[in-house]
């Protein structure tokens, strides 16, 4: 059962500290996908546990009209296409009202984004990213049980490409021994514009997640916490990228 908190806000565009991103837009705060490692849970703390509530900015479409200079990320502390969006269509309304001259980057784990291709086509500068990380089976159950399956996200990337929408794959969070970067790229490179890689930020993932990872996947944990092991693993990933010769816009290691 999800708690929906409807509220009116004064502004929708907030300054971003993410490199290369000037603004972020969160028409939702909080996220039903409830990923166990989610960094946002540390940023927008509430008494209720992460994933049990979502704040809905009901006047977001009105505030979206503003023209801003610089790249906008939708979203940074929520997923713009989490399940409630299918019914509320708040993200869709924000996109409809947004100044189309704005430069927009969308990031989601949901194929629901494909629903809005008609509106996305009105933006000359939009890129849509799907997060992929090859979590399946036991790992998915433990790390992000409520998110759409990998295949659905990969299919969404393909559908966006076929519709002429620029796309990217955000390979994140990379957990050594679990996230198969090479396999992801091989499967998607024919229809993905570019990649961004991000290793798991153990600190931001929180104490509970750290403990679980250490207990259930001690070898992965060891690579993330040992400098030499991590350096060698990173080198192997860079070799893969070189060999596959795809466009990579960055690798965030959090080191
Ligand atoms: S989908 Fe993104 S915002 Fe939502 S819980 Fe997962 S990591 Fe956090």
What best-fitting shape do the alpha-carbon axes yield? Answer: globular
Can you tell me the number of structural domains?
1
Q: Bin the helical content.
A: 25-40%
User: Based on the structure given, which CATH architecture is correct?
Assistant: Alpha-Beta Barrel
Fourth-tier CATH superfamily name = Aldolase class I
Strand order of the largest sheet: 2-3-6-7-8-9-10-11
Overall pLDDT score: 96
- Individual helix count: 12
Structural class: alpha/beta
Bound molecules: iron/sulfur cluster
Low-confidence runs of at least 5 consecutive residues: none
Major sheet attributes: 8 strands, mixed
Secondary-structure element string: EEEEHEHEHHEHEHHEHEHHHHE
Report the strand count: 11
CATH class: Alpha Beta
CATH-assigned fold name: TIM Barrel
Radius of gyration: 18 Å
Question: Could you describe the 3D structure shown?
Answer:
The chain has one domain (3-252): TIM Barrel. It is 36% helix and 22% strand. It has helices at 40-43, 60-63, 84-88, 90-97, 117-120, 137-143, 150-162, 181-188, 202-205, 207-216, 218-225, 227-244, and strands spanning 3-7, 13-15, 23-25, 28-29, 53-57, 71-74, 103-108, 126-132, 166-174, 194-199, 248-252. It starts with a strand and ends with a strand. The site of iron/sulfur cluster has 9 residues, from loops.
Labels describing this entry:
12 helices; 8-stranded mixed β-sheet; single chain; 255 residues; TIM Barrel; 3-stranded mixed β-sheet; binds iron/sulfur cluster; alpha/beta
